[in-house]
Design brief:
globular, Peroxisomal Thiolase, Chain A, domain 1, 13 strands, eleven-stranded mixed β-sheet, 20% strand, alpha/beta, 13 helices, Thiolase, acetyl-CoA C-acyltransferase activity, two-stranded antiparallel ribbon
Length: 386
Amino acid sequence: MTQAYIVEAVRTAGGRRKGALADWHPADLGAEVLNALVDRSGIDPATIDDVILGCVTQAGEQAFAFARNVVLASRLPDSVPAVTIDRQCGSSQQAIHFAAQAVMSGVQDIVIAAGVESMTRVPMFSNMTLHERDGIGTGPFSSRIQERYGVASFSQFTGAEMVAAKYGLDREALDHFALESHRRAAAATEAGHFAAEIVPVMTANGAHTRDEGIRFDATLESIASVKLLQEGGVISPANASQICDGASGVLIVSERALRDLGLTPLARIVNLTVTAGDPVIMLEEPVFATPQALRRAGLALHEIDLFEVNEAFASVPLAWLKALDADPDRLNVHGGAIALGHPLGASGTKLMATLVHALRTHGKRYGLQTMCEGGGIANVTIIEAL
């Protein structure tokens, strides 16, 4: 089996809800990432075998073979195929897995894994409520599912509270973590650590190159003052990920493509793991998926230099740290979704772009990325910087 390599990894700077990227059609926003991957790598776009693109809310402007529309909006020739996938928050991380699997199997040589989500233009959950408008059907959770799990629906917000309770995490701990996310993201921005991964996007105010969600003046007091999402809970909008518009992508190639095209790899794919568990608590699965990935890779946790654990809610990475006794100084070293935003289907390749460049910036070797996903699923990807 051949190896799979990451040659380029890029993302747009995050746009806040109704912010800098609100005027961009999501297909056009995704096209900017595809164009950047081609321009930076210097490959002939006609040689791309496939584009695999994650998107969670596939409705409105993100509907109708959305990935194909992203290709059609780009400078790639119309001979390049594309497919849209939904593994909830892990959609574009799964796109990485599918792209790498295609390359490692020898079926394809050059594949783009990407993700796009405009949470301004296609609001979260808007594709789940058609039955409320037309009076037909009952939504995504059938009576069989409801009876099996004893719930009317699955809620990520409930899951976040359940994770916090199970791992003994109070609001103070979550708020401290949120503050650190902003501090790390602010420091990384000021140091220029995001420059290599960000694709400038033109707006009415010029090139958008800076993540809008970072609160450079964040304090524990300001975070603690935000109202909780439910009475008696610990989750607030301030210690949860931000609504975000964005696009991201990585170019994954085979050894043959490296050789024939004279490409220089940024990283090698070491392991691809996906597991699933309890859909009610939902967000805990990275705790169980990570040890499986490490066993398959033949690595110990202490050998991993940097971790990217998606900050969907502060309770998730904190539970992960506590359960695995991991080093917090290696986790989300440039901040996470609490500060930088969580553009749903784009977050997987977004985190990978940050992880790849952070490893190279800090002279580190191994990186591990994981995130919780709707339905109680988790992807884990381990890479080696080159």
